[in-house]
Design brief:
Layout: E1 4-13, E2 16-26, E3 31-36, H1 42-50, E4 57-62, E5 65-66, E6 77-80, H2 92-102, H3 107-120, H4 136-149, E7 154-158, H5 166-183, E8 186-191, H6 194-200, E9 203-208, E10 211-216, H7 218-223, H8 228-233, E11 240-248, E12 251-254, E13 257-260, E14 268-273, E15 278-294, E16 298-305, E17 308-315, E18 325-330, E19 336-338
Parallel strand pairs: 3-8, 3-9, 6-7, 7-8
Antiparallel strand pairs: 1-2, 1-4, 4-5, 9-10, 11-12, 11-14, 12-13, 14-19, 15-16, 15-18, 16-17
Bound molecules: adenosine-5'-triphosphate (ATP).
């Protein structure tokens, strides 16, 4: 069992607060992704769990053991970082065996583990090659194999696919997902790539400015953002927002149309809808098409609603030209509402 509990962890660098009181529990064998823009504190949080950084306050527990005062090697974790240190002067075999030799495991055990993990990562044919002769993608696999060979309870990964080209990234992503699910490890994975996050994660922790704004399943963060930030950060193109004023009990005026919503005891709310959740039909938002971008299966239409930008993703069979007047009806069950002051979901 390797549940990870992060309790009230904060980190300051001088007067700069990189992390504000983080509370997060990652279940045994869960794949947790830390997602956020550059500088939001993802790497710092991962490094605190790893023991490479000391928190200013708070506790880290792994498998029921408090570890925040232990050095990295005593935490039962393996790490794969962005600039994965694969030793070029060692063969692939020796790279994967490296940590096992440090642990002084018997040679037969080392042979077995190296072979198994190399097969898992499809690099068994490379075992005798020197790592300096490998491609970036192959080196990446070696780094992951080395981590897996340790059979750790916990694997921490920081942008492990960032040095790969797009196609290889896609391939490795699928492989990693399969391998980690089979290996029963608890994983924390840092990325700023939301597609990678959505595809890999059991849960995503969306971070912003040193805080976790929402920790939930990929579908949940996409469909039910806990705050406006999540709606605009997740999804490409992002969610649309329109200021709404109260018309009456549970009815809101959104750019001239009436939309049913919560009776939040307020006069103003922000209406929100994803670009793919509108239909062209009478009685909708009056939108003027400005830019039309065919994307294959869909067409992205950037429009103007009430003088503000509003994006719609429409079926590519629908013909739209710049200058067209459209009527966009939001799908009622996909409409979300946010408090304009706190930005939290209502
Ligand atoms: P990226 O995706 O760019 O790696 P990140 O979300 O992982 O970003 P962190 O590396 O955790 O962000 O950094 C969070 C903030 O803390 C940043 O503003 C960074 O400049 C700052 N920071 C990180 N390490 C230090 C340090 N050793 N000294 C001072 N400031 C630091």
């Amino acid at each position: 069992m390797a549940e990870i509990v992060i309790k009230n962890v904060a980190k300051s660098f001088g007067s700069f607060k990189a992390l504000h009181s983080i509370d997060l529990t990652i279940s045994d064998q869960e794949f947790m992704v830390l997602l956020g823009a550059s500088g939001c504190g993802k790497t710092t949080l991962l490094r605190i769990v790893a023991g490479l950084e000391t928190p200013t306050q708070g506790e880290v527990w792994i498998g029921g053991r408090r570890v925040d005062h232990l050095p990295p090697r005593e935490r039962g974790i393996a790490m794969v970082f962005q600039n994965y240190a694969v030793f070029p002067h060692l063969t692939v075999f020796e790279n994967i065996a490296f940590g096992l030799r440090m642990k002084k495991l018997p040679q037969a055990e080392i042979d077995g583990r190296v072979t198994r993990t190399a097969e898992l990562m499809h690099i068994e044919q490379l075992l005798k090659r020197y790592s300096g002769q490998l491609s970036g993608g192959q080196r990446q696999r070696v780094a992951v194999a080395r981590a897996l060979a340790m059979e750790p309870d916990v694997i921490l990964m920081d942008e492990p696919l960032s040095n790969l080209d797009a196609l290889l990234r896609l391939e490795m992503r699928a492989e990693l997902k399969g391998v980690l699910a089979a290996s029963k490890t608890t994983t924390i994975y840092v990325t700023h790539d939301q597609v990678e996050a959505m595809s890999l994660a059991d849960r995503i922790s969306v971070m912003n400015q040193g805080r976790i704004v929402q920790a939930a399943t990929p579908v949940e963060v996409y469909r039910n953002p806990a705050a406006r930030f999540v709606g605009s950060f997740i999804g490409n193109p992002p969610m649309n927002f329109i200021p709404a004023t109260r018309e009456g009990e549970g009815r809101w005026n959104v750019a001239g149309i009436t939309v049913e919503g919560p009776d939040a005891g307020r006069e103003r709310l922000d209406f929100a809808i994803r670009p793919e959740d509108v239909d062209i039909a009478p009685g909708g938002l009056k939108a003027t098409a400005r830019v039309v971008e065919p994307l294959g299966a869909h067409t992205l239409v950037t429009t103007e609603v009430n003088g503000a930008m509003f994006r719609a993703v429409l079926d590519s069979d629908i013909r739209v030209s710049p200058g067209d007047e459209l009527s966009l009806v939001p799908k009622p069950d996909r409409v979300r509402w946010f408090d304009p002051e706190t930005t939290a979901a209502v």
